Sequence to fold (422 residues):
Amino acid sequence: MDQIIVTGNGELSGEIPIAGAKNACLTLMPATLLSEEPLTLTNAPRLSDIRTMSTLLQSLGAEVTSLQDGQVLAMSSHDLTNHVADYDIVRKMRASNLVLGPMLARLGQAVVSLPGGCAIGARPMDLHIHGLEALGAEIELRDGYLHAKAPGGLKGATVEFSFASVGATENVLMAATLAKGTTVLKNAAREPEIVDLATCLRKMGARIEGDGTSTITIEGVDRLSGATHPVVTDRIELGTYMLAPAIAGGEVECLGGKLHLVESFVEKLDQAGIDVTETDRGLKVRRRNGRVAAVDVTTEPFPGFPTDLQAQMMALLCTAEGTSVLEEKIFENRFMHAPELMRMGAQIEVHGGTATVHGVERLKGAPVMATDLRASVSLILAGLAAEGETVVSRVYHLDRGYEHVVRKLEGVGAKIERVKAE
Ligand code: UD1
Fold:
């Protein structure tokens, strides 16, 4: 299994191109199931999660062709031949559950294995099920699979989510585009990926209003057409690379970055002593002189601080002046990077959903283990400013969500290499 070796190498400078958003692409791809006509996505990221979704869609009978080195995905669901999303594919990635709503809407039936994915908490599907049932679906769990059907077709309804779940909002939103009548989603998630999905669905002929707010209204239509859509910038990859000069010092411009995607994150960076300016090409990030200051962070649904940047932010705060408190409010088990950072000399206490980080002057390189996608990149970031060599194992987690991580960091002066381990 591969390892990534990072050696602290001083300040960084240069540009890092930011890819299209993994999480947007993973919900835009199943949207192809809603239409007989082709859906083409541009600005797609080159990631193993995207390949997993391609395999899943192909197993259902969709055609998925990867063009231009994977940046363009040409899809067609003219003939769907199967309505069973198999455990062997679904277990690799939780986002596989996003085929449920579209399949149900298009075929009137779907059988989807309960998903796997990152080991960061229970991540049940009750909100997805509740929303689809409100639209008239009958769903039961048998042998680890959700068996869903809507014999008379789906019907518009008002769905109030008890929590603004991203995946449940996406699943029910897609299903509602082909339901009869009006659906109103209350307490819907407001993430930019939802807005991107709604924008693409509108191009396909869906009638949707209110995306980006907590109330989304969908007027069902009989059929959707094809479309071509560019995937929105990955705000999590953006935030991750913004932390590279914040941790190592120097100045880096993240190409394609937009302030409105990362406002709550930038607010915390500013408090920590990091300057961010929007240019016509992206976001320029520079650490002010001296050590960063401690800041408290609470993860929340968008527009709050994203849980997917919590691990990376912790890597920054490990060397801040003072004590920072990080509260994780989205997933119950998302501090697995803390013991790994402690192997590098970080001083962290975890109690339930709260981590208290006492900043130290400098971290020291160590062998560490990636435990999930965002945790793995936090260890690489920490290694950028650590003394000596940090060897990160289990980097397959990283390949799920970061394309060309070595090339991108090398491009701004980091000393980093990927090696084949015995
Ligand atoms: C998406 C993102 C993930 C991000 C998360 C929160 C994708 C592919 N993944 O995941 O990277 O970390 O949003 O921003 O877009 N929950 C329930 N019942 C449900 C659904 C969710 O209790 O039916 C809970 C989960 O266990 C979790 C919380 O709600 O504690 C947030 O989950 P959700 O917003 O659904 O995240 P995902 O869509 O899985």
Summary: The pocket of uridine-diphosphate-N-acetylglucosamine is lined by residues 23, 26, 94-95, 121-128, 163, 165-168, 193, 307-308, 330-331 (CB under 6 Å). The chain has two domains: 2-19+233-420, 22-230. The mean pLDDT is 95.
